[in-house]
Amino acid sequence: MSGSTSPGLVVRIAARAPARPTTSLRYLRRTQDYRQELGIWGSPWVGIKQFQLLFNDELFMRSLWNTISIAFLKLVFAFPASIVLALFLNEVRVLIFKRVVQTVVYAPYFLSWVIYAAIL
């Protein structure tokens, strides 16, 4: 077996392996009002009670709304801004300026903010 095929083989074997019992038990305990004396099969199921608690919580609803609105605003403003920046950079004739702007714009995606701050 060559070195390049062994990672793929490991992934295939791991994907076919059954779930660990502890993971399954943790999931069952979250979906039940688990009582030690009744065990897994004797404990009553929670059902939709946890979802009702979650969606009736004012702080959760505000957080959900903030998350959705920020994602929408990023889609509306950041996506077109990146396209406009690319079009503007395409029109720049000074190659050194173009490369510097591209480096400054993309550096945060490749470097940690700590390293980036140390460079500046």
Structure description:
This protein has 120 residues and is mainly α. The protein has two domains: 46 residues, no CATH class; 73 residues, no CATH class. The chain is built from seven helices and no strands. The longest helix is centred in the middle third of the chain and has 34 residues. It starts with 5 loop residues before the first helix and ends with a helix. The mean pLDDT is 78.
Main features:
single chain, 120 residues, mainly alpha, 7 helices, 74% helix
Layout of strands and helices, then pairs:
Blueprint: H1 6-16, H2 21-30, H3 39-42, H4 49-55, H5 58-91, H6 95-110, H7 113-119
Compute the gyration radius: what is it? Answer: 26 Å
Number of strands: 0
User: What is the helix fraction of residues, given as a range?
Assistant: over 70%
> Roughly how many Å apart are the termini?
48 Å
Tell the overall outline. elongated
Q: Write the H/E string, N to C.
A: HHHHHHH
DSSP strand content: under 5%
How many structural domains in the coordinates?
Answer: 2
Low-confidence stretches: none
Main sheet specs: none
* Main structural class: mainly alpha
Number of helices: 7
Average pLDDT number: 78
Quick overview of this protein structure:
This protein has 120 residues and is mostly helical. It has helices at 6-16, 21-30, 39-42, 49-55, 58-91, 95-110, 113-119. The radius of gyration is 26 Å and the shape is elongated.
